Amino acid sequence: MSLFTILTRAEIEGLVSFRDAIEAVEQAFQDLARGEASLFPVIRERIDPYGGYFGVKAGYLKTRGCLGYKGGGFWASNREKSLAGHQSVILLYDPETGIPRAALDGNYITVIRTGAVGALAARHLARRNSRIAAVIGAGVQGAIQLDGLREALPIEEVRCFDLNPDSSRALTARASALGLRAVSAMSPREAVEGADVVVTATPSFQHILEDAWIARGTHISAFGADTRGKQELDPRLLGRARLVADYLPQSREIGEFQHAFREGIVDGVHAELGEILNGWKPGRETEDQVTVFDATGIALQDLAVAARALAAAEAAGVGTKVALA
Prior knowledge:
With about 325 residues, this protein is of the alpha/beta class. Helices cover about 35% and strands about 25% of the residues. It contains 11 helices and 18 strands.
């Protein structure tokens, strides 16, 4: 009889480090570019009257024997209820038999896998001597994105901005405790002007960064747009930047690049991230290039980290085992 494993957030935190997540996510993107992984159509729908967005992202890492999906979404109103805005669970299946193998808390995995892809993008697209970072959106993702930047670059200073001043001050205090020069900016413009690398991680439906604010040589990783209509960047900025997508079909439809494609400002991208990670296409090539990475979030990121956690749990005898039949 096959037993089904349940892993809680606390258990996963003890099994998978941030660096483990970076390694797993890098391998997943490389597999996707080589045709050794598949992504299935995304479901993403608004849930009224609660103002939430529910989605399902599914995929299959063939060579790693990992099949499954993440179901969940984002409820901005949860902040008022002292709950995390993001809520999700990941289910893994045996690809040979279809038998369900495990259910894992998806909230922590979503945080670290998104931070991991931020680290990979910064490593290949930002100037190597980038020292000043701007983080627009100072919530949970803003914090992990700062960790990702510090894994990839010699960051010394961070400017934080959030519409919620308390969030901005909290991330500023966290950055100061890490030994960084940190300030709470009064506006997005104040945060990004003079920054070497910019991360946006907001739920915005209109652009919050203007083209004119972004100097040559800046790298931007845009994480907020994962739904039709969402937007953080002035589309004119994309017309002069080197564009890299996590997965182009999603980027065109629900990502940051959707608006520039629709308006005819761009008709393609330089590369998908996996092509750069495999060494097939270059990342940044000159010091004065503006580079933009569109992170829509793909199922393979979640599945790769979940599979890593499940393997570690089985080796350590961690998790709750139940019989489903």
